Amino acid sequence: MDRLTLPNGLRVVLAPDRSAPVVGVAVVYDVGIRSEPEGRTGFAHLFEHLMFQGSESLEKLEHFRYVQGSGGNMNGSTHLDYTDYFEMLPSNALERALFLEADRMRGPRLTEENLRNQVDVVKEEIRVNVLNRPYGAFPWLTLPPILFDTYPNAHDGYGSFTDLESATVADAADFFEKYYAAGNAVLTLAGDFDADQAAKLVERHFSDVPPRPAPVRPSFAEPDLTGERRDSYTDRLAPLPAFAAAWRVPDPIGELAGYLPYVVLAEVLTDGDASRLVRRLILTDRTVTTVGGYIGVMGEPFGVRDPTFLVLQAHLPPGGATDPVLTAMHEECDRIAQNGLESGELDRTVARMAAQLLRDSDAVIGRCLRMAVLELQHGDGGLAASIPSLLESVTEEQVRAAAAAIVAPRRAVIEVIPGAGGSA
Amino acid sequence: MSQSVQTGLRAVPPLEPNRELILPQQAERTLPNGLTVIAIERRSVPLVELRLRIPFSRSIIDPRFLATSSLLSQTILSGTPTMSTVEIAAALQTVGGALSAGVDADRLLLSGNGLNNGLERILEIVGDVLTGANYPEEEVTTERARLIDRLQVALTQPGHLARVAMLKRVYGQHTYAMQTPEIGDVSEVSRDELVALHAARVHPAGAVLVLVGDFEADRVLDAAEAALGSWDGAGGGEELPPIPPLVGGPVTLANRPDSVQSSLRVVLPAVNRTHPDHAALQLANLIFGGYFSSRWVLNIREDKGYTYGPHSFVDHAVAGSVVIAAAEVATEVTGPALLETWYELGRIATVPPEEDELEQARQYALGSLLLGMSTQAGLAGLATAYAGSGLRLDFLAEHAIRLAAASREDVASVGARYLAPAKGAVVILGDGDVIEPSLSALSSVERTSG
Fold first, then answer.
1. Which of A58, B104, B326, B421 could form a disulfide with B345 if both were Cys (CB 3.0 to 4.6 A apart)?
2. Is A204 helix (H, G, I), strand (E, B) or coil?
3. Mind listing the pLDDT tens digit for each residue in B216-258?
4. How far apart are CA A360 and CA A114, in angstroms?
5. Residue A358: which of B45, B77, B158 has the nearest Cβ?
6. How far apart (Å, rounded) are the C-alpha atoms in residues B291 and B365?
7. CATH 3.30.830.10 spans which residues of chain A?
């Protein structure tokens, strides 16, 4: 893996691998949902759409046509703390992909017509994913406002229709100017190329992107809860009750070693039929129909900054009650805290986690994105290769200590009350 | 920086010469028990992917079979005489692995992956499950209730409801018409029925095991034979009648009161992978609606903002293939969205595509083959899907040649033959009272019962 920084501040990571004739190219900007302005909920995501609507040298639609007409595919996604843009293509199109990313880093074409069109598209996206299906907002939009108090952490990152409709071209220009600076971005390449040649291509296309300093990233820190918080809402399409509970965890960047045990704990509790909560709640008590555990609302343990949390969530059978399940969850955490893990339990859990990480990295774009985010957030894209061994170094003592912190007074709970027919 | 950026400043770099499609090293053996094992090398990460495809078709609509096979797929990993469901999961996890099972109208599929040095252990567990799954009463009770809960949730999901209405309209009396079990039928499935279905159907004859990973292909065949050679018995799916010809006619409207979007489905005829029209049809479908840069997406999303993710694809099943165009559109523009969909289908059916449109779709199709082959999971999926049509990965090379050779005339001719709107079955799930008036302006409309 090679790293370089261009004079304009753009950080670059190159990871050649010639085992298949394909490449991945990703640009990740250090801005996400937490940074969008008040009164502009959903703006970071809306802006991501606008980055596909033409750029300095490209008309609307040309980005898609150049990528797909080269045999590739593209996408972008908006997260709490970053926004990514990426292409995967046959490797003969590497230079073209670099051109496309550099062109929109110099400037997207922000027009009233494109903005109105993409506001409509985003509203349909929200209808598909949230408003027209059961459990659409659960828990990623409904849990943070229980756990957090401040706008950056608590607000609806998909956006209210009112805020989306209020967005202006001037807002978009400001957002680009402030956050889409070369110095606020990481470019990664993975796959079938020669590192030296790729470095030359990167310089050819990105070196004249104007330098703008990265904005100062504010702290989004909030204090931990001192007592339980709880709320509920009715989902008119949901036929079964559900709930999610969250507990704050250490800073994933600043306290990585203290954070990893919580990442492992989430899997000990919920990964597969041999996990603690599946055994207890599904196979033994039969009090839940599904159970899951993960870090943060997006479930990406290696792509989120502080403050974040461990989530345990469950869908319940008809008429199921939240409290007995929460009590059982605490009993299981307490059992780990008191008695430790079973023989082989930690090793097998971590073995599966490591295999999953490797599997994600088999695709060039998976490698690209993980390296880019780690370079952006940890200053070290190479961490991608060492995460499995870091997980292996987590001790049983540390997992016990993490489990001991999953206690009732620190939890935030959101309950879904079924509003649809069924036998609930 | 502002909206007044200068444009057309720079030229887009040309492509380097196309990369050659190179097939991975592979080996194949049909064991004496009838199981075909295909081992494919991809040594990018120290993992293996496993897919076991067992024919599982039923020639007639049989709700009880559907319920039993669905519950079988949820409990086949729930225990053997020597291992509990938890022990199976723990043993797999120990080698970084996991297995899951799923069933559809054609096959039962076991899927899994794990660390490459755990392959023999994973195969051993698969062998134990195939020959010894014993469907413990406790786990069957648990999984039956969970399956019912999932079905309950599915009944509130527009995608599921639209699919149910679409299958019924398109497949009529064919077994494909019903692919989700009824809650009432599931609630009656007993452990004995699961054991009996396993005994009748879960056998190696006609089954295909695909392994992809960081290994030496020939050696892996031996490992598979050692683990699965003693799996035995005759099973196999039932012979399916071909799917019925598509009938145009009125728009089928399935009512979902208060729906904030309408689920629009247009089903059109198609051909299987080996048919001479297949490559040209794939290209015609891409140009119409099969990728982001297609006419349909650019029209109803990027121009009109009616929808988020419209897409159209060729769906291959054992008994026949169809093209399915699917979009979730805002309730108030349901009529206009159907109009634009018909317009784009009419255009692909009556006017030859432009040369550059065809080239773009062709490059996309060829590039997708390279990308699809670039991961272990992608190769496993491709090889398994192809095996279901009696094909091997070598077919990719033939298919690439046909994609490269298809002309504008070829695409125009398949467009007329398969994508003509008059041949399509239209099914729309949405708020009937709101959308019916504008749909009625375009077509006769038939509401589904219930």
1. B421
2. helix
3. 999 999 999 999 999 998 777 899 999 999 999 999 999 999 9
4. 34
5. B45
6. 10
7. 2-206, 229-418
Residue pair B162/B94 in contact (Cβ under 8 Å)? The answer is no
pLDDT tier, B450 (very low <50, low <70, confident <90, very high otherwise): low
CATH topology of domain A229-418: Cytochrome Bc1 Complex; Chain A, domain 1 (3.30.830)
The confidence score (pLDDT) of residue B179 equals: 98
- Omega prior to A307 cis, within 30 of 0: yes
Please give the structure tokens belonging to residue B157: 């999901």
Domain with CATH 3.30.830.10 in chain B: 26-228, 251-447
Give residue-wise pLDDT tens across range B399-439.
999 999 999 999 999 999 999 999 999 999 999 999 999 99
Q: Tens digit of pLDDT for each residue in A371-403?
A: 999 999 999 999 999 999 999 999 999 999 999
Interface of A with B in 211-250 (CB under 8 A): 236-240
In angstroms, the Cα distances linking B167 to B19, B128, B151, B425 are 40, 36, 17, 10
Cβ contact B32:B408 at 8 Å = no
- For B429, phi then psi, to 5°, come to -105, 125
Contact A85, A64 (CB under 8 A): no
Residue of B nearest to A52 (CA): B302
List CB contacts (< 8 A) between B370 and chain A: 20-22, 71, 90
The b-or-e profile of A284-313 (16+ CB within 10 A means b, else e) is eeebbbbbbbbbbbbebbbbbbbbbbbbbb
Instruction: Could you please state the CATH topology (level 3) that the domain comprising B26-228 is classified under.
Output: Cytochrome Bc1 Complex; Chain A, domain 1 (3.30.830)
User: Measured between alpha carbons, how far is A269 from A291 in angstroms, rounded to an integer?
Assistant: 9
CATH number for B251-447: choose from 1.10.260.40, 3.40.50.1820, 3.10.105.10, 3.30.830.10.
3.30.830.10
Query: Sign of dihedral through CA atoms B352, B358, B361, B362?
Result: positive
Q: Apex CA B349: angle with CA B428 and CA B364, to 5°? A: 90
Adjacency order of strands within the sheet including B98-103 = B26-30, B36-41, B208-213, B47-55, B107-115, B98-103
The strand ranges marked E within B35-96 are 36-41, 47-55
The verdict on a CB contact (< 8 Å) between A273 and B95 is no
Contact status of A286 with chain B (Cβ, < 8 Å): yes
Which of A89, A118, A282 minimises the CB distance to B142? A282
What values do phi and psi take at A30, rounded to 5? -85, 65
Question: Is domain A2-206 in CATH 3.30.1490.20, yes or no?
Answer: no
A149 part of contact set with chain B, CB < 8 Å: no
Report the 10 Å Cβ neighbour count for B84: 17
